[in-house]
Each structure stands twice: as structure tokens, then as C-alpha cells.
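Whiteboard transcription, Tuesday session. T.W. wrote the C-alpha cells on the left side:
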């Protein structure tokens, strides 16, 4: 079984997860999609853009890495989402890898100036979910079963201003006894940051933490070994002992928003004809990774891996990696043509 487990993790890079869409106060926005947007820069998004390292949706794996704030060499977005204090935000992810057991945490931090680095922003926690014993599921599994999505609410009593909304999946599988030595060991963070222009009548300015700095390797939330088995027994008893990392949740008001819903002047989506071209290229690029992610989640569904599935997965890893490279190479002319059309678009006032 150890061989098949190793195959699963060798190919996991193609099955990592990232935010594919975000709805803020009723308006949908495209993210900075690292599978294609880095090839089309500059793109107009509400998400902080970042460098692509090794693979798309690459995890951050160092407690002291500045990239823990908003990913690799993060740069501020050109847009921000108008939001009422108290509004709901829904994150939609690419298929969330079920064997990446761990929590989901969302932070909010006031951005003092447009040029303030995210590492200097004071983030306060507005949402957290770890292991839910009532359903015997980790947060990532819970979100996976909820259409790879989850919803958070913006506090209703905070001061108006531009904020960074930072959400993350934290994968603990590298702490498992059969994986906690060598290259597979350690914590994986999948953080994503978005700029919101929040308007309300509140004046609260919550204390916050910085990234890096908020987390330490000795925190119980990061030393914990999630239960994993190759049998059918439940992991509820052990996993229920999990303690979420980071500061306590903000205890202010989370009341429903008041007043009319804001209308975004621009979401970052392209005009219809260009959006069709964009999505066509994206769907081609993402196909091998999606197929792989779907297979991973069926092969390792809630503690129950299957030897034959893992064996098949070994071959899929090689072919998916090769196919992705060939697809991107084949799209070179389409991407260059798209960039010319994109450059000709008028910039909204």
C-alpha cells in the first residue's frame, strides 16, 4: 500500500485546489486563475495576482515564508469588490482534494494604503471550520460535498474601507505517520486574497495578526496527526481532538447588511465574445488536472483508498502532466491572439 500512497502524492500537484470563482454581496467575480491568467497579464481582477512556482495552485509550505500572506510575490489587484458590511461571500473552488484533510479559515484585514504589502496587514479571523464530529468530516471534505464551496459573512460593525479578504485551506495529510518523513512531510497552505471595498456604519477596528507570524510549527493545529486508515473504521474519536490554529474568531456583530446592494462597475469578466474564447482556452488547459482530481477523490473517498485505483492513478499522473504541457504549447497562437484583443479593450473609467 505504501507504493500506491506514494504515487498519489507524487501526482498531487496536478490535483491541487484553487478558487475558481467568488461571489461578493451577490456579484460574481472571476479570480486570478493561475492556470491561464499568468499567460495573459495584465488581467483585471479583485484577487491578488502571484507568481507561478512549480505548478498552478502550488501550496505554501514554510511557516516563515512571506508568501504565506497572499501567495508567491503577491501583487495588488486592479479591482476591488464593492461590499456592504454584513454581506455574504461565497468561495467556489476547483475540485477540493479530499485526502488533504484539514481546516478552512478566512480572515479580513484593513488595507491602510494601496501600496501596503499584505505581510503588514493586520488580519482578524471571521470564519473557521476544522473537524466536524457530527458528520465525521474535515472542513475540506465538508466543502467538497457542498459543491466545492463555502460561505462566510463579513462583520457588520467594522469600519468602512478597503480590506483584504484572505481565505485558506490547510492540508494536514503530511503529518500522517506514513508520510511525515521526507519530501511529503509538513503542512500545506492554500491561501487566496481578494480586495473588498466595504461600506457600513460601524466603527470597529479589530486587532489582528500578520502572515507570516500568526502561525508557529509548535501550534497544536499544525502538529496534529489526522486519522487515516486503509480499513473501514471511523476516525471521529481521534479527529475530534483537533484544535484550530490562529487567533480566536472575531466576536463582533455579523448581522445582515442594510441598504441597497452595490453595483460593481467592473467585475473583471471579459465582454461576451472574449469570455467565450477565454473559457474555451481554460477548459482545455484544466481538463487533465480535473480528470486527475476527480479520480483522486474517487480513489480516496473518506478514509477508504483502493489498491487497484491507486495503481491506475500512477499511469494517469504521467499522462496528465504530459497532456497539460502539450495543450499549453498548442494554445500558444490562441493565447497571443487573445492578448491582442485584450489589449484593445477600453479601460473602464
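and on the right, the sequence the group agreed on:
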Amino acid at each position: 500500500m505504501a507504493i500506491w500512497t506514494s504515487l498519489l502524492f507524487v501526482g498531487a500537484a496536478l490535483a491541487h485546489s484553487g478558487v475558481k470563482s467568488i461571489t461578493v454581496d451577490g456579484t460574481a467575480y472571476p479570480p486570478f486563475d493561475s492556470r491561464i491568467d499568468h499567460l495573459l497579464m495584465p488581467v483585471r481582477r479583485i484577487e491578488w495576482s502571484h507568481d507561478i512556482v512549480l505548478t498552478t495552485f502550488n501550496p505554501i509550505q514554510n511557516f516563515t515564508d512571506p508568501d504565506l500572506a497572499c501567495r508567491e510575490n503577491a501583487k495588488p489587484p486592479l479591482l476591488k469588490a464593492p461590499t456592504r458590511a454584513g454581506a455574504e461571500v461565497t468561495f467556489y473552488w476547483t475540485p477540493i482534494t479530499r485526502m488533504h484533510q484539514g481546516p478552512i479559515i478566512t480572515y479580513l484585514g484593513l488595507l491602510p494604503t494601496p501600496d501596503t504589502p499584505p505581510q503588514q496587514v493586520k488580519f482578524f479571523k471571521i470564519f473557521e471550520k476544522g473537524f466536524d464530529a457530527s458528520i465525521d468530516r474535515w472542513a475540506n471534505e465538508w466543502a467538497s460535498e457542498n459543491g466545492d464551496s463555502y460561505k462566510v459573512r463579513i462583520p457588520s460593525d467594522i469600519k468602512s474601507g478597503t480590506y483584504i479578504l484572505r481565505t485558506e485551506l490547510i492540508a494536514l495529510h503530511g503529518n500522517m505517520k506514513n508520510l511525515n518523513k521526507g519530501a511529503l512531510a509538513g503542512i500545506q497552505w492554500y491561501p487566496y486574497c481578494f480586495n473588498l471595498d466595504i461600506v457600513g456604519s460601524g466603527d470597529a477596528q479589530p486587532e489582528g495578526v500578520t502572515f507570516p507570524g500568526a502561525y508557529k510549527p509548535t501550534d497544536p493545529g499544525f502538529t496534529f496527526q489526522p486519522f487515516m486508515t486503509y480499513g473501514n473504521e471511523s476516525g471521529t474519536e481521534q479527529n475530534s481532538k483537533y484544535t484550530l490554529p490562529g487567533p480566536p474568531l472575531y466576536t463582533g456583530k455579523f448581522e445582515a447588511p442594510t441598504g441597497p446592494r452595490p453595483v460593481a462597475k467592473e467585475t473583471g469578466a471579459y465582454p461576451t465574445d472574449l469570455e467565450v474564447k477565454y473559457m474555451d482556452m481554460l477548459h482545455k488547459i484544466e481538463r487533465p488536472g480535473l480528470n486527475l482530481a476527480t479520480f483522486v477523490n474517487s480513489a480516496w473517498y473518506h478514509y477508504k483508498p483502493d489498491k487497484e485505483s491507486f495503481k491506475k492513478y500512477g499511469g494517469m499522473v504521467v499522462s496528465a502532466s504530459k497532456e497539460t504541457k502539450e495543450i499549453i504549447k498548442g494554445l500558444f497562437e490562441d493565447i497571443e491572439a487573445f492578448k491582442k484583443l485584450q489589449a484593445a479593450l477600453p479601460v473602464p473609467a
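Someone added at the bottom: Confidence is low (pLDDT under 50) at residues 1-12.
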